[in-house]
UniProtKB/TrEMBL annotation:
It comes from Nocardia tenerifensis. Signal peptide: none annotated. It comes from the Bacteria. The lineage of its organism: Bacteria, Bacillati, Actinomycetota, Actinomycetes, Mycobacteriales. This is Cation diffusion facilitator CzcD-associated flavoprotein CzcO. InterPro entries: FAD-bind_Monooxygenase_sf, FAD/NAD-bd_sf.
Length: 504
């Protein structure tokens, strides 16, 4: 019977074509999946596929198309180190431009041909007897030596359940699923939530709507964005002198890394950052009553601080109201708050963030049959944010304690990609069939993470956020140390931390 030969661990086993076999299956064609594809090809690993549930690559930058969608990290840093781009039109890349960049990288490095679109992972189960992953997708069944989750943390919309929401007769949609066919002109619009996405789209829609009611649970910290359009001279210098681009990237890295002083070095370092946020608020909001509503009551960094120069001015316009009372009921065309006020609206836009952990965690089952989602809800756990005990030959990007609260996600992703590829090279070179992080190595890492997290602003900053566990008592998965220290720890695959078995 025809079949395919497994390559990564040199196991000479033929798998029937009824279940197509590949060495490596990567789930997700966003920044992590594309970057991993580039490095796999560079390592000589060509027997891999990238499963993408959508009809196009891009991940969060494909899915989020709301007005004003842009990155909140400077473009020179929010891009691959191996694929610098001198053509950014602005200091902060917009969604269409970032998506175009990803398309170009996938094409340039030959990754696009490995992507299978409209292919959603339904379930992945480790087969201990056969020593591979069985992966059920919307396009059929695959088996693989190695499975990698490259799904980002912002892939699924979170919409809170409000009493009576099923009775609402107007339009409603989440920022992740923006309805571009719906005309907001002259409408009474309610925006629920004031996170990073809402801060970007509110200034865009405010001039068009008739009445905008912003329902705020807690005021975000807003600091100056200082965005500008790049000049032809700047772009020319970056094209002609690559070292200039490296220097600019390094400067941005150092500036953003410095925010770690607030997060995990000493909370007293937060005061200059908070002073900057207060100055922004005082300068842009003259009304004392509104300014009081927009003043955060927690330490900066406890929730994600947001860069914006347009948000506060939009909220001061005469057609905008900021409501801090809690929504208690929804009617056919209204939202009632706990102060008894009925707010009439035509459209609800949910700016309420994303589900954590991603649903894919509930679809991946390890050697004992338990899912990643079950483990995460008990306690966020991993080793270096890349592997999990009980899940052989399985890797993640931006897994628990593999994401940074003070750095570009791309920097962390590239560190994890290096680690994963080095692990696969180790398997290939040493003839290893199976690797799994030792439970004691993972536990030692988690104890370190918990100890380092105890006094961070994420846990003790007097707020509730997705940075915290469900009960609010612990760090939900941010790496509580410098990102360059994380990059050093993941610079090579530490085989001694793993249980391994050779090809039979």
């Amino acid at each position: 019977m025809a079949g395919s030969v497994i390559a990564v661990g040199r196991r000479k086993e033929v798998v029937p074509v009824a279940e197509e076999h590949v060495s490596v299956v990567v789930v997700g064609a966003g920044f992590a999946g594309i970057g991993l594809g580039v490095r796999l090809r560079e390592a000589g690993i060509e027997d891999f596929v990238i499963l993408e549930r959508a009809g196009e690559l891009g991940g969060t930058w494909r899915a989020n198309t709301y007005p004003g969608c842009a990155c909140d990290v400077p473009s020179m840093l929010y891009s691959y180190s191996f694929a610098p781009n001198a053509e950014w039109s602005r200091r902060y890349g917009t969604q269409p431009e970032i998506l175009d960049y990803l398309r170009a990288v996938a094409a340039r490095f030959g990754v696009a041909q490995h992507i299978r679109y409209d292919t959603e992972l339904r379930a992945a189960d480790w087969d201990e007897g056969r020593g591979y992953w069985r992966i059920d997708t919307s396009q059929g069944v695959l088996t693989a030596d190695v499975l990698v989750s490259a799904i980002g943390p912002f892939s699924e919309a979170r919409i809170p359940e409000l009493p009576g929401i099923e009775t609402f007769t107007g339009a409603q949609f989440h920022s992740l699923h923006w309805d571009h066919d719906h005309d907001l002109t002259g409408e009474r619009v309610a925006v629920i939530g004031t996170g990073a996405s809402a801060v970007q789209f509110i200034p865009e829609i405010q001039p068009r709507v008739g009445r905008l009611t912003v329902f705020q649970r807690s005021a975000p910290w807003i600091v100056p964005r200082l965005d500008w359009a790049t000049s032809s001279l700047e772009r020319s210098a970056l094209r002609r002198m690559p070292m200039v681009g490296k220097a600019v990237r390094g400067a941005y890295f150092a500036a953003i890394e410095g925010f770690g002083l607030v997060g995990f070095v000493d909370k007293r370092f937060r005061h200059p950052y908070e002073a900057l946020g207060r100055l922004q608020l005082r300068r842009q909001v003259r009304d004392r009553r509104l300014r009081g509503r927009l003043t955060p009551d927690y330490m900066i960094g406890c929730k994600r601080a947001i860069f914006s120069d347009a948000y506060y001015p939009a909220l001061t316009q005469p057609n905008v109201e900021v409501v801090t009372s809690r929504i208690v009921a929804v009617g056919p065309r209204s939202l009632r708050t706990d102060d008894g006020v009925e707010h009439e609206v035509d459209t609800i836009i949910w700016g309420t963030g994303f589900g954590v952990p991603p649903q894919i965690f509930d679809r991946v089952h390890g050697s004992d049959g338990r899912s990643m989602g079950e483990l995460y809800r008990e306690r966020p756990q991993s080793y270096l944010g890349t592997t999990v005990s009980g899940f052989p030959n399985f890797f993640t990007t931006l897994g628990p304690f593999g994401a940074a609260g003070n750095q570009s996600a791309i920097y962390m992703i590239e560190a994890q990609i290096r680690y994963i590829v080095d692990a696969l090279n180790t398997m290939r070179d040493n003839g290893l069939r199976r690797i799994e992080v030792r439970a004691e190595a993972q536990e030692e890492f988690l104890r370190e993470m918990e100890a380092r997290s105890r006094d961070t602003v994420w846990v003790t900053g007097n707020c509730r956020s997705y940075y915290q566990t469900a009960d609010g008592s612990g760090n939900a998965g941010l790496y509580p140390n410098w990102s360059f220290e994380y990059a050093r720890r993941t610079s090579r695959f530490d085989e001694d931390a793993y249980l391994t078995s050779e090809v039979r």
